[in-house]
Specification:
Strand content: 15-25%
Helix content: 40-55%
Structural class: alpha/beta
Strand order of the largest sheet: 3-2-1-4-5-6
CATH architecture: 3-Layer(aba) Sandwich
Number of domains: 1
CATH class: Alpha Beta
Number of strands: 6
CATH topology: Rossmann fold
CATH superfamily: NAD(P)-binding Rossmann-like Domain
Number of helices: 6
Largest sheet: 6 strands, parallel
Amino acid sequence: MTGVLRVGWIGCGRHATEMLLPQLVRHPARLVALCDVDEGALARAGERFGVTARERDYRALLSRNDIDAIGMAVGPKAHVAIAGDALASGRPVFIEKPPGTDAADARTIAAAAARAGRPAVLGFMKRYSTANRIAALEQRVATGAGVTPRRPVNPWA
């Protein structure tokens, strides 16, 4: 794949539309199609992100041939089945945490990824987000843990 990654997204709830999709569109990716069982959530996400291809059944989204990768935030009870089908379609998959209801579900997804030869990536935490790095630095400064205050160096002094 070269150029822009064409993404099909499953699950258009609040977390997806407020946290995940706004970040996705900041990268060389294009939302090609959206899917949600809630028609209102699907319509709102489609309007907000300019996506006209909208499906109520994830299988219809997976049947499209204009999608390179699948993203999903549908909840742990649905992640296993949908991720398995998405991986079987030959596409890499992003799954928002948690991947399932227990460790066995996570192992099932990992096995499906191995069988398909495609990655299943889990969105676990925003460890490297700018906001979290700033908050961590502020915490270290406030507690004096591991931070040595420095004065700006004037190279002409």
